[in-house]
Each structure stands twice: as C-alpha cells, then as structure tokens.
Amino acid sequence: MRAKRTGGYSLIEMLLVVGLLALIAAIAVPAFDRPDEASLDRAAVEVAAALRFAQAESIRTGTPYGVHVESGVQRLRVYRLDESVSPATPVYDIRDPYSKQLYTLQFESGSTQPAIASVYFKFEGEVSPQRYLGFAAETGVPKYNDSGTIRMLEAGYVQVGLDGLIRTISISPITGRVTVQ
Questions:
Q1: Which of 68, 73, 142, 152 is the most buried (most CB within 10 A)?
Q2: Second CATH level (architecture) for the domain 35-180
Q3: Residue extents of the structural domains in the chain
Q4: Lowest mean pLDDT among 43-52, 108-117, 156-165
Q5: What is the full DSSP assignment across 6-22?
Q6: pLDDT tens-digit profile of 113-125?
C-alpha cells in the first residue's frame, strides 16, 4: 500500500516556480531600468516633429519656414521668414497645430529633464555653424538665407541629452529628411 501524500511541494515543483518568477523578473526589470530614456526619446521626437513641421509648412504655404535652436537658453522655436523686408527677418508667430500655442520647445539644462546638448547646422561657404535652419518655399530644401545669399545645408543635426545619454536628430542636406538616432 502506498502512503498518501499529505500536502507540500516537491523540490522540482518549487524550482520550476522560482525559475518562472526569475524569468518574469528578468523581463520586467529592464523596462523599469531607465525611465529617463523614455523622456529623452520623447524629446527627440518633439524636435524631429518641429523640424518636419517647418519643412511641411514651407512646402504647403510657399513661404520659407525654419527653426531657430538656442542651446544657451535651451529653446527651439519655429519661425516663418518675412522676405518683404530687407534683410529677411524671422517672425516667431507660428502656432503648434495641436496646442494652438506658439511653436516653442523649452528645455531645462542641468536637471533631470532632457536638454539640448548641441546644435550643428553647417552651410556651404560658411566658416562657422549656424543656429538657424530654414526650408525653401515650395521645395522644402534645407537652406540658410545669409543677407540675401542662399546657402545650402552641408550637414545638420540637433542633439538632446539626459544623464549621459544622447539622441541625435539629423537633417539630410538635399532632401531635408529628418531622422532620429
């Protein structure tokens, strides 16, 4: 006659449960490992959206639009170029299509929030990089209006950073394609 089992778990059953719990924990922990990485990704997507918006509006309206990135005050603003005056002047009256507020991205340096790490817009014939990136009316080609002289983009990017992590938003010179890396 066999002895009747009176409860409890075998060693194999306990090892199986502990192993499954360890597997679930290993999958869940990386998701909570870097919550700041998600905010950095959102900031990079916002910068890319501002660049794409300026380009799309220049094509749609036939008016030059652009972005002005001020890393010193941690701000990116979308502008339209008023060519009715000489020299052409950026006008910061563009509104975000969703919030209806002025299209300005404000970052904070030295905090726990993402910040503009660097800006580099290099145009042909220019010695130093600029903080303005414009898009040609109707074509959306990235350019810079240097007191009436149109200079084409050679290389361009905006970097946002947080806690040693960096995301680079690059602008392709000829097509103006915006990518986040």
A1: 142
A2: 3-Layer(bab) Sandwich (3.55)
A3: 35-180
A4: 108-117
A5: -S---HHHHHHHHHHHH
A6: 899 999 999 999 8
